[in-house]
From TrEMBL:
Residues 10-60 form the HTH lacI-type domain. Keywords: DNA-binding, Transcription, Transcription regulation. One of its GO terms (molecular function) is transcription cis-regulatory region binding. The keyword Transcription regulation applies. It comes from Terrimicrobium sacchariphilum. This is LacI family transcriptional regulator. Pfam families: Peripla_BP_3 (PF13377).
Length: 340
């Protein structure tokens, strides 16, 4: 490119305009003659120049950046959520910047500090493991940078957006009870994590609400593998197949585990749903196309992303944004067989 421009001052000298006029034209401010503004933008484009986002942030106290702190994308089913979030951010005239973490407090704290330093307009965190008094969150608050914690792993007093997991398990159990199931196996859900505790409480509460004893209705199959994935579901299904007086239905922590479980059950000569009903969680893209297609819970991730971003861009009051999940009934659940 011939004669590139490296600063607003250089561009102003080339156009014979004041730096103030050029700066306001590039940043879309009013009070500039439309023809002058168009000439400035056209010359800037030809010269390959754009104003510094960070420099603008230092002057105004804010940039048009939205910081996103994300842990393991696969483990937390974040790929689609981040795609929806990116589109929503761009539609609102902002730009998203993602900082991956190693799921440690230090890594998350460092990400928040970077976003504070570059004057992000707001920050969104996924599966945060920072407590409400953590210095990283406090420094954002002092800088008046709003931070929305999406499904945090710890209790917090900040702005929270999340899916109602208790409601999700109520929908799951009510569906199976309505089909006639009274003995249910639970794959991968336990009370040792925040998400697991919510699901555990929801399952047991649904049994109690139906007049059934959780101890007699539920049989828990804890995972032996570290991840809630296809392999874990497959392994638990083989363990399940060997048990006496097997439950007639299985509830899994997510769709990947459900799909692995279906494969394991089929290899053990158990038909889904004739012998065993299986229900997942997440409404993953593949859930409608596996054989049989998977009954699952849709946690309404798109709605959650839009609501979380709105809490930054158009804040009304601090508090919680809670999304209500929906049940998607497909082929993997049916009334229990009379022969067991």
């Amino acid at each position: 490119m011939k004669n590139p421009v490296h600063s607003t001052s250089e561009l102003a000298r080339r156009l014979g305009l004041s730096r103030w006029t050029v700066s306001r034209a590039l940043n879309g401010h009013t009070g500039i003659n439309p023809e002058t503004a168009a000439r400035v933008r056209d010359e800037a484009k030809k010269a390959g120049f754009s104003p510094s986002i960070l420099g603008r942030g230092l002057r105004s106290g804010r940039t048009d950046l939205i910081g996103i702190v994300a842990p393991d994308l696969e483990e937390y089913f974040l790929t689609r959520k981040l795609s929806v979030l990116r589109l929503r951010i761009e539609e609102a005239g902002y730009h998203g910047i993602i900082q991956m973490t190693d799921s440690s407090p230090a890594s998350e704290r460092a990400a928040l500090e970077r976003f504070r330093a570059i004057r992000c307009n707001g920050v969104l965190t996924f599966a945060s493991i920072l407590g409400p008094r953590d210095i990283g969150l406090q420094r954002l608050k002092e800088a008046k940078i709003p931070c929305v914690q999406i499904d945090p792993l710890l209790k917090t007093s900040g702005i929270i957006a999340g899916t109602d997991r208790l409601e999700a398990q109520r929908l799951t159990l009510e569906h199976l009870f309505s089909l006639g199931h009274r003995q249910i196996g639970v794959f991968g859900i336990d009370s040792s994590t925040t998400y697991g505790r919510q699901r555990y409480d929801g399952i047991t509460a649904a049994c109690t609400a139906a007049g059934l004893s959780p101890e007699k209705t539920l049989r828990w199959f804890p995972r032996q593998h570290p991840k809630d994935d296809f392999t874990t579901g497959y392994a638990l299904a083989h363990e399940f197949a060997k048990t006496r007086q097997r439950p007639t239905a299985i509830v899994t922590i997510n769709d990947r585990m459900a799909l692995g479980a279906i494969r394991g059950l089929q290899e053990s000569d158990l038909d889904v749903p004739r012998d065993i009903s299986v229900i997942g969680y997440d409404n993953a893209d593949f859930s409608a196309y596996c054989n049989p297609s998977l009954t699952t819970i849709d946690p309404q991730g798109d709605t959650l992303m839009r609501g979380a971003l709105d809490m930054i861009l158009a804040p009304k009051s601090l508090g919680h944004f809670r999304v209500q999940p929906t049940l998607i009934v497909r082929q993997s659940t049916a009334a229990p067989s009379q022969v067991h």
